Amino acid sequence: MNGTGADAAAILLEQDGDICVLESFGIREAQSLASDPHILNSFSKGASYVITHPEDIIVESTLTQFHPKEVVVEPVKFKNVPIAVLLLAKAEPFQEDCSKQLSIFTQSLAVALHNALEHEQLQKLAALDPLTGILNRRFGLVRLHEEYSRSVRRATPLGVLMFDIDHFKQVNDTYGHVVGDRVLRNITGLIRQGIREGDILLRYGGEEFMVILPGASKDDSFSIADRVRHIVRDSKTAYGDNQIGVTISVGVDSMPESSVSGELELIANADEALYRSKNSGRDKVTIH
Fold it and tell me: For residues 200 and 145, what is the distance between their CA atoms, to the nearest angstrom?
């Protein structure tokens, strides 16, 4: 942005419906630009603006130390779709060749931003289960390893819950896999309601989920698991005129109360406790 000769500038990006400032200089409160009508129109309509002696644009009150004589608002387009907006402000009018330089700059910026966003999205998609939107098994186990290592270093507890939806095959056989998928998504949301902020939920496989509970003892883990169990049991998944109810069985373990040699042993212990929950009538929480 410095190559444009501007005294102040900002690049704004739209992500998940919100406009945020990617980079700025010379602007005291750059985030306030996100609500400026010129910026919003540039995003929504791809409009460009050159504002001389601006009296109404919000950048006037947020720029530091100088009153801009000219402000340029330029959409950054990739394949003719605005993906960002560039704002430039200068104490004196821009030179005549500024528009040509700006066109070259925004074209290069568009390609760079698109590639960066695509890479970020691909990384995000690789880590998430496509059906439920939570961590998949592979990346969830990476997070478990990280939390286990942190707990060992700090000598703090680490709990693990293994959930399984009881008789889930009957749901698929009765209503079909489309409805089964809806139940899985609903259960994901219900588990999120019952766990704490900072707990890590992942889809372990099929109808089985895992929750990683940093700092949780066996009693803490049991309380969280039983809260989730009640939330699931008291909820229904709507499908047409049908209200589909399911229950879950849960296995619990926590270290260092259980002496384990690694995080995989913690999983094995919780899985064994889950097995006992299912074999003793289901809709239960069992501690290893």
Answer: 12
CB 147 within 8 A of CB 200: yes
Whether the Cβ atoms of residue 251 and residue 156 lie closer than 8 Å to each other? no
Residue type, 260: V
Residue 286 is inside which H or E element, if any? strand 285-287
For residue range 204-252, what is the model confidence (pLDDT) as tens digits? 989 999 999 999 999 999 999 999 999 999 999 988 788 999 999 999 9
CA distance 159 to 257: 10
In terms of C-beta distances under 8 Å and separation of at least 24 residues, what long-range contacts does 116-123 make, across chains too? 117/15, 117/83
Measuring CA to CA, which residue among 268, 137, 269 is closest to residue 206?
137
| Predicted TM-score (pTM) above 0.85 | no
59: nearest Cα among 4, 8, 117: 8
- Residue-range domain boundaries for the chain: 2-121, 137-287
User: Do 10 and 24 form a contact (C-beta atoms < 8 A)?
Assistant: yes
Fold of the domain spanning 137-287: Alpha-Beta Plaits (3.30.70)
Q: Give CA–CA dist 21/239, Å, rounded.
A: 42
Active-site positions?
A: 207
What contacts 94, CB < 8 A, 6 or more positions away?
4, 5, 6, 70, 72, 88
In this structure, which CATH number among 3.30.450.40, 3.10.100.10, 3.30.450.20, 1.10.10.10 belongs to the domain 2-121? Answer: 3.30.450.40
